[in-house]
Write a structure and sequence with these properties.
Elements: H1 15-46, H2 48-61, H3 77-89, E1 105-107, E2 110-112, H4 140-157, E3 158-161, E4 187-190, H5 194-198
Antiparallel strand pairs: 1-2, 3-4
Length: 201
């Protein structure tokens, strides 16, 4: 991003814009996959037949002698569908963002008073994070790959159960920040041979 220049050899992005992009990528790379996997796993534990089908697909495609890897993803249609459904049911970002500023704020040196309608019209816009069309999020493929691998390894590697004493139940309530209102508490029981897990270390 530092090397991006316009026709007059001026930087296309300021240092502040580059920092903002890097922070956005870092936060998205950590938060979004882990949140999507937590929701997917909660739904699968809540509906054990879905978890069973995902385990069955992983056993048939990958087996139990090695861990799932990126080369397996093209054959894991059910697991990929589970990830997509979790993201559809529980998006990590609100879909209907406010069209007005919710408080007085200064953005890029400009004062924007509360309740101002904000429109972005720039026909030469060079970068727009998490958008659509030609300017779609550049991390969408990486993010979905990371999410699918993480969920697939958790499903393949462990049998997931809720505490038998009934103290913990799957709670699919959503908080205001679109996360689970209460964390998913489940017991992970290894379902592969110990030697398979040692390959991770």
């Amino acid at each position: 991003m530092i090397n991006l220049k316009d026709s007059e050899n001026n930087p296309l992005l300021s240092i502040e814009e580059i920092k903002a992009q890097i922070i956005e990528i870092m936060l998205a790379a950590v938060d979004n996959p882990s949140n999507a996997v937590e929701w997917a796993l909660a739904e699968m534990i809540y509906q054990p037949d879905i978890l069973y089908q995902a385990c069955k697909e992983l056993d048939e495609v990958v087996g139990k002698d090695r861990l799932v890897d990126e080369s397996d993803l093209s054959k894991l249609n059910y697991v990929k569908a589970c990830v997509k459904e979790a993201i559809r049911l529980y998006p990590t970002r609100p879909l209907n963002l406010p069209h007005m500023s919710t408080k007085d704020i200064i953005v890029g040196g400009y004062f924007i008073p509360k309740d101002s309608e904000v429109k972005l019209v720039d026909h030469e816009l060079c970068m727009m994070s998490f958008s659509a069309g030609r300017r779609v999020c550049p991390g969408v493929v990486l993010g979905s790959t990371m999410t699918t691998i993480l969920l697939a390894r958790l499903i393949q590697g462990f049998r997931w159960i809720i505490a038998p004493n009934g103290l913990h139940k799957v709670n699919l309530a959503e908080s205001e920040d679109l996360l689970m209102a209460k964390p998913l508490i489940a017991q992970a029981v290894p379902r592969l041979e110990p030697r398979v897990y040692h390959k991770l270390m």
